[in-house]
Amino acid sequence: MEKEKPTSVTTDSRTLDEFMKSLQRLFKIAIYYPAGHTILDQATSRFMELLTVIAGDDLNVTIEIIDNELVMEGIKFDPRLPFVDEFKTMLTTLDIASLTIDREISVSEVHAFVRKILFYKARSASAKQFVQIEVSELPHSTKVVQKEYLVRNTGLDSAKTSDDPNDNLNTFIESLNKYGLNSEQIANCRALLESLPQKLPDGSVELSDLPHASWDDVALLLARSVKDREGVIGEGKRKLSTHANINALAAILKKLESSTNDKKSRQTINLLISIIKNPQEKKENRSEYVSQAPSRVFSETPELTVEELQQYSDNHGYTDSILNTIPEAPSSNETLSILMQLAAYDQPMQTQIRMQQLFRELLTGGSIGDKTWEILSNGLKNIVEGGSTPKIQTIINQLLDPLRKTRGSTLHLFFQTVRQCHPDERRTLWPYVVNELLVTGSRDNTQTYHKLCQFAASLPLETMQKYLPQLQNLESFQDRNIAGDIFYAVTPPCYPLFGFLLKTDLKLYIGERVISGIKKNSKDQIVRAMVPLLDMVNEEHVLFLHAYLYQHLKKDGEQTIRTIVSQLITTSLTLLPQERRDEAWIPTTIEALGTAISAESRTLLEKISSGKKLLFIPEWPTPCRKAAEQALKGSGRR
Fold it and tell me: Are the C-beta atoms of 77 and 70 separated by less than 8 Å?
């Protein structure tokens, strides 16, 4: 293996190979065995054990394909290893560039992830036409980044698109006069497109970033790109997105342009690319001279240097005072302001779809400035003031998708809005804030996450109960989409929120993540010692966790919790089977009993330290006896 060694990931090649083999085994046996079967449980346990070892102090590990090589956390696998080709084929088939797995992933999430990937793999294998498949609905503890290219699928818009490639070409070519092309340019485009099959010996082109594409498919996509722009495809129909069509077409034509020696064909292809990427329809009142003006094809690289431009400016008297009077181009913030105002009113479905497209274009792909945040938060505040739940739901849904791609931004939007709202209006936002806290987790914006948790936990219990039905209709409850680190960045004032959620349908998910957070961050030795014993199926343990999350609100809460923990640990260790007494966590838990000593726990510690069977054989292993002796000494000092 070639190593670009990260700081916190185990780089032992044998461990990495074993990890990939364990994941490969999961993909093979998950098809046949249901959850709970011994074989699947053993394979899952081995995978999670290796995941924890490899992740080290990191929150996750990443598997990706770079330059056609399988790489994990910067470490390239030897291509001769048996699992490499299988993983490369699977990831390439699903257009997955990288796959990230949280170290805190649960057993149920492992099984859900594996079965989802197998489902999409089977779906891709049976596809027949070009569409972009999105690998979605994965557990939140796994993330994939997909390449933007096409795979095949069946039956997509067949009723709306002709099977005859000539009809598709005609549809596209007839639309070119809307974009200011003269008759000669349109004729050149037609001649080029009609000659494409003859330009390549096998009638197709292979692109490094695209799968096999025949020129019939190119013609089909050309027609669809025009139809999508003209709104030919009806609302509610599943269709290729205009954005995906444009990217695919531009990539195909650009590839062809680079391999064409004929100057006229190159110019025509460049012209087509410019139309597909940025079509400018002709205005109705434009003069004949303008409409017939020849289109120019510009080089992607400027031909003038900075010095030449400066000299031109100096020669023509363009002083700084004159240049400063030239207005800037229209700001995207003006468009955002209009969109946020439109969102305060009922809009037809077609307008909402167009608004969603604009939000994506304006908010995806770059940093967001203070002025933009001000427009978004003020606009959301005004809609919240209106009190219409459907309008609030609609605008939040439109903003979440693009802002989630700018990591941590959704939390920032809610924080900015909550700060401006009246207390009554803040309550209206509560279910959406809690949903986003559960879905996104704390890793991308820890400080804002903590502040929002404090706000969400500060509401009275009856208010939380009132808004719970709205929360249950959102993504976190509907899709069981819960981040693994929701309890990592919180302090006791935030605990009541999680105590409340522990009484809902999500109690198993919330409980697992609270336990994970205590294990990782809690400084209370006695509570951490209790964590390995907790079982969210055990109602008594759920009640303990609920009491722990509310204990800071009570004057003697800490002492009460320590007493309960001491009782639970004492009972659990007393009933612990002989064959489990060698487990690694037990000495730490025994030693923690000394911080909350009681008559029962003292008796147990004495039995562990000196208990014998058959007069001379110790009942407990040596590490446990030493831990018990240490606990007794510590309790004596206190």
Answer: yes
pLDDT tens digit sequence for 515-529: 888 888 777 777 778
The pair of three-digit structure tokens given for residue 59, joined into one six-digit string: 């929150």
Which residue has tokens 């190119």? 218
Helix (H, G, I), strand (E, B) or coil at 88: helix
Q: Cβ(102)–Cβ(123) under 8 Å?
A: no
Query: Quick one: tokens of 182?
Result: 């003269």
Residues, the chain: 638
Residues 6+ apart with CB under 8 A from 107: 35, 41, 44, 48
Helix (H) or strand (E) run with residue 170 in it: helix 165-175
Measure the CA angle with vertex 592, ends 589 and 595; round to 5°: 160
Residue 340 makes CB contacts below 8 A (sequence gap 6+) with: 375, 376, 378, 379, 380, 382, 383, 395
Token couple for 363: 């908010």
Q: Are 10 and 54 in contact (CB under 8 A)?
A: yes
Q: How far apart are CA 122 and CA 140, in angstroms?
A: 22
How far apart, in whole angstroms, are the C-alpha atoms of residue 180 and residue 275? 10
Minimal CA–CA distance to 456: which of 477, 443, 471? 471
- pLDDT of res. 91: 84
Spell 108-124 as b/e; 16+ CB within 10 A means b. ebbbbbbebbbebbeeb
pTM: 0.51
